Amino acid sequence: MRTYIANGWKSVKDQFYVIIILFLYQLLWGYFLYRLVESAVVPLLMRYPDPPPNQLSQALYYIEAQMGLSENSTVHAYLWILLGIGVFRMLLTPFIQAGILYGLQQEYKGLRGLFFFQGMRRYGKSIFIFHIVEWILLAAPAYWLLPRLYHVLISGLQSQLLFLNGVPYVVAWLLYGYIVHQLLLYMQFGKISGSGMVSSLWIGICNSLPIIGISICLE
Amino acid sequence: MNELYFHLYPNAFASMETTFMKESGGKLRNDSMPSNGYGSMTLKGMKTENGLSLMNRLEYVQPDDGNIKDKTLMKVRLPRPVKGGESITLSMQYEVQLPKIFARMGTAGNFVMAGQWFPKISVYEPANTRGRSTEGWNLHQYHGNSEFYADFGIYSVRIHVPKNYTVAATGFPVQPAQNKNGEKVYQFYADDVHDFAWSASPDFIVAEEPFSSAEVPGVRIKLYLDPAHKDLKERYFYAAKAALKYFSRWYGTYPYSTLSIVVPPEAGNGAGGMEYPTLVTAFGAKDESPGYDLERTVIHEIGHQYFYGMLASNEFEEAWLDEGFTSYAEDKLMEQEYGVIPSLPVQSTLISTPAPLTQDAWKYTLPNQYALNVYYRGKMVLKTIEQSVGKSTMNKIMARYTGKYRFGHPTTSDFQKIVEQATGKSWKSYFDQYVYGEQMADFAVDQITVQKKKSGSNPLFESAITISKNGGNYDKIPILFTFKDGHKLKKIWDGSGKSAVFKLQYTSPLAWAMVDPSYNIVLDNKHMNNYLKADMDKDVLFRWNESITKLIETLLGSLSW
Ligand SMILES: [Zn+2]
């Protein structure tokens, strides 16, 4: 196990330019999101009556904030922007992933070069299909879970302790999502390395416990 | 006159294609149409006094929307015109299939609420009625959002029911109920009323109490209770007596000899909270110890004996004259008798889609738009007049309005004139904005800038505060300024112009400013912008921004790079 990790670090070094690209990519998103949040949140905080000048002030603030979610066009604009960012990044993700996986794969074969962009071109589309499958699998439980979570949300608005009832559902969903993600990742490895998706999946399942351990340690 | 028009209201429930069902989606307030709850009215015969049948002279008309599937309004061409001063007598046979209750009328188990159960003649308005220039019929179909409009008349009604049933009805029984051929026969009489409703059930628990006061010569209050509320008699009677007493004092003597209160069973809740002349319904009896909603409903519906009953406004076209005025009266009495004060700021906040109050009822199409405008905005318009002219002048205005238009058909401009006479000034601008128009008030603190003028041991700061008017006009807008050292300062803005800048010099910078700090401007429906801080701690702001950004980034990052 130790040698594998050491090899991992070596490939990281070789593909340093990819890390820089991804770092800049995330930095830019982070900056953009921060500015977006700031432009939305600061005006709201400046209007939050604390300490409340009138005993109704805070209640009215919350009622109007809640109504704003469904009725206010500025709020809607922000939600659309966030949704747009989410969709854009999700569409970009398969290509980034294809670049990384392909780079790792070529590296493993002992080759050197700018594999990141090559991988994007060569495997972007097929990884994209993996992602569509992944999104569908991730979203599927919503059909059963959303009605339950909605109930929890509504009851939680009256008594905040009731929000806890939603925790098991959310945890189960996250766990399920994590497993789906990991298994599909193995299949993507298999696809790119040409060793076959089913066998990679099998390797993934066999190795799942140590891998989960490593992932948690690295987090 | 060459033709007559009749409302066949039960036909609203004839199919999913009627105007009522299409507009309401088979739902009124919180009650939905039970499956197969259809109802209808079938005319079997219509004759003149000399026996001439008019059946081939009938035609359904749809003046509001041209929906030919809607048969709630019927035109009858007369064999010869009826001239001014002449009269015509028609006899009709008809069958009514009552719908299952979800919208005011119908049946629920063995409970019957017979409202709008007969072909009701439309109102023929002479010139100058409600401001119209030429005489003519006032014609509307039955809509998802609309109640009724009818003319005053005399009703003599015989009702046959199975022996075990008890009947409550408009007016008074001319003799005790008779048992004939295994049936029970009731005979009721009512005059000076514009509708006749009755209700029947074998389960009613009946209680009766006489009531009189300095303002009310004598009324028999009759209670027809669903058994679930048999122990709540006293609450119903108390509320009814308070309503009769004070509404008579404020809005003129209750002129009828009876007042019946029907408490429907839970399944008949759709028939609850409804007003008919001398007969009202409370909401359905489900809870054994309901809150003040019980009293509120009874008081509201008795209030309608004035604003609807005696002041028979056109509920199709100016529903606020019934609901807004009644809600205003209801709030006033609930506060006086039970100390229950509504939270007007919260209620106004809910009014997110204000619309003109003189708009046809079915044109309020957005969710809750009808109720929020006609009930809430309507009463707030009155409350604002009250705040402006003072309670005693307002009482005079209401007394004059209810006195002058008793047994009439007042319109909004009639009320406006009364307000103008009582206050000796024009109210055109106010009515144009808030009644005929769709304005709400909305005053906001837009911007605060603080400048240090002098530093050192005697510092001086100039704080500039911009207040803006985003809605309708209002006379005196109070503003509260609070400085960092806790010092408070109150100012009044006269509300002229779109905005105003207040420049304050003080030894401490401004902490925050608030328009209308006590929420007295009841028509202001946006309160968040009443308040603004001059600034906030940078670290606090950064922490908020950072945590929210992180949260979003975590969510996005879990699904994407
Ligand atoms: Zn009402």
Description:
The complex is a heterodimer of chains A (219) and B (561). With 219 residues, chain A is an all-alpha fold. Chain A has 2 domains: 121 residues, no CATH class; 80 residues, no CATH class. In chain A, 85% of the residues lie in helices and 0% in strands. Chain A has 8 helices and no strands. In chain A, helix 5 runs antiparallel to helix 7. Chain A is elongated and about 70 Å long. The relative contact order of chain A is 0.07. The model of chain A has no long low-confidence stretch (mean pLDDT 81). Chain B has 561 residues and is α+β, with helices and mostly antiparallel strands. Helices cover 26% and strands 29% of the residues of chain B. Among the domains of chain B are: 144 residues, no CATH class; 94 residues, Immunoglobulin-like (Sandwich). The chains are: A mainly alpha (219), B alpha+beta (561). Chains A and B meet through helix 2, helix 3 and helix 4 of A and helix 6, strand 30 and helix 11 of B. The complex binds zinc ion. Chain A: Keywords: Membrane, Transmembrane, Transmembrane helix.
Main sheet properties of chain A: none
Question: What is the distance, rounded to the nearest whole angstrom, between the alpha carbons of the first and last residues of chain B?
Answer: 79 Å
Which consecutive residue ranges of chain B, at least 5 long each, have pLDDT under 50? Answer: none
Share of helix of chain B, binned: 25-40%
Q: Estimate what percentage of residues of chain B fall within beta strands.
A: 25-35%
How is the quaternary structure best described? heterodimer
Q: List how many beta strands of chain A DSSP finds.
A: 0
Strand order of the largest sheet of chain B: 19-20-21-23-22
**Percent strand of chain A:** under 5%
Number of strands of chain B: 30
> What's the number of helices of chain B?
11
Fraction of residues in H or I helices of chain A: over 70%
- Overall mean confidence score, pLDDT of chain A: 81
Keywords (chain A): Membrane, Transmembrane, Transmembrane helix
